Amino acid sequence: MPASRKQRDIVVNALHARTNFGALLRQVETDRGSLVIVKRGRPRAILLSLRDYVRLASPEPEVLKIIGQESEAKGTHRLTSQQINAVIRKARAENAGSKVAKRNRVK
Question: N or C: which end of the chain has fewer CB within 10 A?
């Protein structure tokens, strides 16, 4: 999470949560905070973004954190899936070409 973005908890009553669920869901997702749902003055549930839930449920292994930091440093974290697929196709084609050349030399 960027350091400039501060997490905040939103406390709403159950009726408000029910009637404004879509807007609250978008807010939780974009603000990366949590939504505490209160019924009759008592906290009953918490709504988290999927990203925050996954982070809490299964913390990222240290090796993935390092890979992520290296990716950001190299700028590769901005690649689209199409760009990644193109890189993979190119590498496979080069690999296949080197295998054919190697077989031709052996014969």
Answer: C
Rounded CA separation 82/21 (Å): 34
For residue 77, what are its two tokens? 């974290």
Exposure pattern of 28-39 as b/e (b: 16+ CB <10 Å)? beeebbbbebee
Q: Give the global pTM.
A: 0.47
Cα-Cα end-to-end distance for the chain: 56
d(CA 46, CA 74) in angstroms, rounded, equals 37
Tens-place pLDDT, residues 15-38: 999 999 999 988 888 887 788 999
